[in-house]
TrEMBL record, chain B:
SUPFAM superfamilies the UniProt entry points to: MoaD/ThiS
Signal peptide per UniProt: none
Protein's UniProt name: Molybdenum cofactor biosynthesis protein MoaD
Pfam entry (one): ThiS
Alphabetized Gene3D superfamilies for the sequence: 3.10.20.30
InterPro entries attached to this UniProt entry: Beta-grasp_dom_sf (IPR012675), Mopterin_synth/thiamin_S_b (IPR016155), Sulfur_Carrier/Prot_Modifier (IPR052045), ThiS/MoaD-like (IPR003749)
Amino acid sequence: MLEISREFVDAILAQSRVEYPDECCGVILGAAGSGKATRLKPMINAAHSPTFYEFDSKDLLALYREIDDNDEEIVVIYHSHTETEARPSRTDIAYASEPEAHYVLVSTREEIAPATEFRSFRIIEGVVSEEEVSITE
Amino acid sequence: MAIDVRIPTILRPYTKDQKSVQATGSNLGALIADLDLTYAGIGERLLEDGALRRFINVYINDEDVRFLGGLDSQLKDGDSVTILPAVAGG
C-alpha cells in the first residue's frame, strides 16, 4: 500500500495538467529505510514527449547524489500518461529499475476529465502488481 | 589502477549487495570487462551489441560517458564511476 498526502496527490495532478501534452515526471523521497513519502521533487521530462519520459542524465546523477548526502531513498517514481489509462505501459515495465519504489501513474486523458486517475504499482522483475493508495488529509 | 564503481540497486545481486566495488581498466570498456570477470553477468546488463545499453547511464566523476567517448572513455587512478539505470518509460 502507498500512503501519500493529499497535498502531494494534488501537486502531481496539477503538474500533469501544466505539462500536458507532454508527460510529466518526478519522485517523492523519504528517509532511507522509512518507506515514507515526505519530499516531493518534480523532475524535468528530458524527452519532452506525449508518449515518453526520461529524467535528464545530469539531473539523475544529481538526484542520486542528493539522496546519498541526505540519507534518503526514492519512495515514489511518478509520471503521467497523456491519453491512456494510468497503468504501466510495456516500456514502463521494461525500464522499471527500482524494485523498492512505488510506481505512481496519473492520467490526463480527456474522456475521464474532470475526474482524475491516480494509481500505484510495484514493478519487480517485469511483474506488475497494483496496490492500494491511501491518501492522508 | 583501482577505480571505485558505484553499483545501482538493480545490479547489486551481481555484487553480493555491495553498493560500491573496485575494478581496474584504462578505459570504460576494459573496466566493464574486468567487472564482469569478478561479477559474472553484470557485463551483459550494461552492454548490448558491444555498446552501452541505451537506458544505462554511466558517469566518470560527474560526466556522462556519452559525452566523453562511451566505452573508449579514458580512466585514471582515483576516478570514480557511477552506474545508474535511466528513470524512463512511456
